[in-house]
């Protein structure tokens, strides 16, 4: 039995800047959108950033626009594209005519390959700029899948080694300062209570620690499945009988999935010792509406109890 | 709906590429189809791109490398596993097309080149195709099962050969290093201005490195272009086919549909859609042991509510999957039920294989 108490996704976005990361298919966008909505409802001004338009983000943007309760304080949805940030950046530095030409001639593509992390740095620099503007209480970045996360987070340090002078170096310094400041930024990792995602999130967290850059704020376990609670007598009667009626098999199926999820939760709790773990319930739906996201009840794992 | 059985496909094709969005179980499906093919007497190699550790674990191996390792199955056909090492594959290509040993060394030492395989999008996929091309000509294998990395964009994978060629053909850098640039002075002047500005932003060292890369690469583009077109031909040939892997979650299905449409647009055919991790059916297997009669009413309510919930979920999933498969005109749709316990052993994979191969 893993003990937990009621919590909120607000706990996963306690800093001004939160980078939401995790492997593909675990629900990064779901968690990002749900966190953005929770913050907006708590009266905060929120901007949700992403590098591609996920289905869920597009849908949230559409549905939020149609909702009266977000009329006064709607989360802002914004797409970040390195090329566009570069053009904007060159424009503000009096080099407007160059930007488009750099991109159309493929020079940016060559330079971005020569300098790994330059796209990522441009994105972080934009986030830094948004943070400094003071326009938003919360900046949530739905980051690209894990593989690229390390490139993203190591880009300021990596680029400092390569670019010793120039505008790039100044940007790297500023971004690094933001990431290192635990009072301003944090990382939230999303995972599923399944073998591969759990193993990868444990590895990811240990790699992030080695970078000595951004702090891991929270780990959000999405789709934690719970079987319905039968009486103990009923439970053993069903499980021992070999009954193959549809309702007995459906119960055993959900119980089996719960057992796998529990074991994976234990592995997380023991594998990641000093990060808060939040869990979101599995809703037995293939599709989540905005209302479902608003009503998602986060629970927080109680550490001491589960580690003995 | 199916034109030919899955077994028939495995027996007649040389390359089966599994593609689809992240988190749907492509690696497990690739491993199990490869096991199934080997058990059916086909000499098979399973090729994975990333991350190899998962496939290795699934196959009970410590690690797999760039050279095929045999997995002892005692099956009628042999089974090998290969992990793609994009860097090593690219290095081998450089050696193949370089005019001299000096050229090889200069390129391998260049920073732009060293970062190319990791940071030019689609290159990992392209190198995988290159590796497949090589394995395709290896007499030990009749069939290659390819597990592709999850990419947000199916185009990354299909467009990779063209992208590499256009990267290598970069005009700005070609002009700057061209010996005849005096004839093109006006352009060259503008180009130099561009590079000078970039130097201000990223530092001159990086620009120099980029220029050096294109200089070193000179003369190899034709070889690469020809190779890219050969690899492209294999992908488009009758010998290659695609299995689109998905799972019945609404967002995943939308991504899969997008993915599938792009495959079709590029002229590829989708031999099968594998709908993985479906909620299994709980009907038509009635054996009431009598235990339900003894349960307290509240337990019975819970059980029936649970069944209703699960059946509803299943029916939504099935409808979404069927609609998608219809839209993509796939030759067949394979349903793979989630057993609730995950896949943890080679036996689980062999079991999954038999359900995929025995499907129509």
Per-chain topology:
The complex is a heterodimer of chains A (308) and B (360).
Chain A: E1 4-6, E2 17-21, H1 28-41, E3 46-50, H2 55-65, E4 76-79, H3 82-92, H4 96-104, H5 107-114, H6 118-133, E5 138-142, H7 146-162, H8 167-180, E6 185-191, H9 195-211, E7 216-224, H10 232-241, H11 246-271, E8 276-281, H12 290-295, E9 299-301, H13 303-307
Parallel strand pairs in A: 2-5, 2-6, 3-4, 3-5, 6-7, 7-8
Antiparallel strand pairs in A: 1-9, 8-9
Chain B: H1 6-12, E1 15-19, H2 26-39, E2 44-48, H3 52-58, E3 69-70, E4 79-83, H4 86-97, H5 101-109, H6 111-119, H7 123-136, E5 143-147, H8 154-158, H9 160-168, H10 171-177, H11 185-202, H12 204-217, H13 221-236, E6 240-246, H14 250-265, E7 270-278, H15 297-328, E8 333-337, H16 346-357
Parallel strand pairs in B: 1-5, 1-6, 2-4, 2-5, 6-7, 7-8
Antiparallel strand pairs in B: 3-4
Helix pairs in contact in B: 2-16, 4-7, 9-13, 10-11, 10-12, 11-12, 14-15
Strand content of chain A: 15-25%
Count of individual beta strands of chain B:
8
Classification by helices and strands of chain A: alpha/beta
Q: How many structural domains of chain A?
A: 1
User: What is the average per-residue confidence, as pLDDT of chain B, rounded to a whole number?
Assistant: 83
Q: What is the oligomer described by this structure?
A: heterodimer
Q: What is the H-and-E element order of chain B?
A: HEHEHEEHHHHEHHHHHHEHEHEH
CATH class of the domain at 6-155 and 238-282 and 295-349 in chain B: Alpha Beta
Describe this protein with a few key phrases.
heterodimer, A: 308 residues, nine-stranded mixed sheet, 13 helices, B: alpha/beta, 16 helices, 56% helix
């Amino acid at each position: 039995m893993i003990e937990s108490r009621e919590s909120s996704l607000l706990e996963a976005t306690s800093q001004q800047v939160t980078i939401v990361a995790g492997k593909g298919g675990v629900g990064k966008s779901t968690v990002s959108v749900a966190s953005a909505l929770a913050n907006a409802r708590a009266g905060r001004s929120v901007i949700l950033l992403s590098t591609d338009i996920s289905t869920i983000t597009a849908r949230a943007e559409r549905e939020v626009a149609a909702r009266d309760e977000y009329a006064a304080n709607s989360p802002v949805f914004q797409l970040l594209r390195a090329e566009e940030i570069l053009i904007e950046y060159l424009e503000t530095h009096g080099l407007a005519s160059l930007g488009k030409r750099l991109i159309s001639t493929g020079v940016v593509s060559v330079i971005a390959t020569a300098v790994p992390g330059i796209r990522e740095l441009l994105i972080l620099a934009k986030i830094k700029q948004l943070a400094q503007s003071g326009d938003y209480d919360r900046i949530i970045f739905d980051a690209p899948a894990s593989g690229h996360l390390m490139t993203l987070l190591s880009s300021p340090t990596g680029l400092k080694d390569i670019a010793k002078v120039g505008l790039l170096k100044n940007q790297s310094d500023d971004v690094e300062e933001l990431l290192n400041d635990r009072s301003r930024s944090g990382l939230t990792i999303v995972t599923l209570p399944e073998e591969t995602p759990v193993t990868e999130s444990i590895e990811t967290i240990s790699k992030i620690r080695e970078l000595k850059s951004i702090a891991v704020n929270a780990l959000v376990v999405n789709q934690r499945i719970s079987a319905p609670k039968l009486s103990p007598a009923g439970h053993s009667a069903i499980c021992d009988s070999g009954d193959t009626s549809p309702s007995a098999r459906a119960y055993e199926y959900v119980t089996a999935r719960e057992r796998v999820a529990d074991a994976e939760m234990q592995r997380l709790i023991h594998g990641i010792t000093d990060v808060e773990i939040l869990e979101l319930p599995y809703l037995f739906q293939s599709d989540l509406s905005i209302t479902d996201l608003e009503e998602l009840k986060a629970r927080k794992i109680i550490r001491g109890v589960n580690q003995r | 709906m199916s034109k030919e059985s899955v077994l028939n496909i495995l027996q007649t094709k040389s390359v089966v590429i599994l593609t689809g969005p992240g988190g749907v179980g492509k690696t497990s499906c690739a491993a199990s189809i490869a096991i199934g093919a080997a058990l059916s007497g086909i000499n098979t190699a399973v090729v994975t791109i990333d991350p190899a550790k998962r496939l290795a674990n699934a196959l009970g191996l410590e690690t797999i490398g760039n050279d095929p390792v045999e997995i002892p199955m005692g099956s009628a056909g042999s089974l090998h596993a290969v992990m793609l090492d994009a860097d090593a594959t690219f290095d081998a290509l450089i050696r193949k097309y370089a005019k001299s040993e000096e050229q090889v060394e200069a390129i391998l030492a260049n920073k732009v080149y060293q970062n190319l395989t990791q940071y030019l999008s689609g290159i990992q996929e392209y190198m995988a195709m290159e590796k497949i091309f090589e394995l395709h000509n290896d007499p030990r294998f009749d069939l290659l099962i390819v597990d592709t990395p999850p990419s947000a964009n199916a185009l990354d994978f299909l467009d990779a050969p063209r992208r590499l060629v256009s990267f290598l053909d970069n005009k700005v850098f070609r002009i700057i290093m061209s010996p005849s640039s005096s004839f093109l002075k006006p352009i060259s002047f503008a180009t130099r201005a561009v590079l000078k500005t970039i130097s201000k932003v990223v530092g001159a060292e990086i620009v120099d490195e980029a220029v050096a890369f294109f200089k070193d690469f000179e003369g190899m583009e034709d070889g690469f272009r020809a190779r890219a077109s050969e690899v492209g031909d294999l992908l488009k040939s009758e010998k290659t086919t695609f299995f689109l892997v998905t799972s019945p979650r609404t967002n995943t299905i939308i991504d899969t549909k997008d993915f599938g449409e792009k495959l079709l647009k590029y002229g590829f055919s989708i031999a099968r859609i594998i709908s993985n991790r479906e909620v299994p059916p709980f009907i038509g297997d009635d054996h009431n042991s009598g235990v339900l009669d003894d349960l307290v009413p509240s337990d019975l309510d819970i059980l029936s509510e649970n069944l209703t919930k699960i059946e509803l979920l299943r029916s939504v999933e099935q409808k979404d999957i069927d609609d998608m498969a219809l839209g993509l005109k796939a030759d067949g749709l394979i349903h793979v039920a989630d057993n609730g316990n995950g896949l943890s052993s080679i036996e689980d994979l062999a079991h999954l294989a038999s359900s995929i191969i025995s499907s129509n």
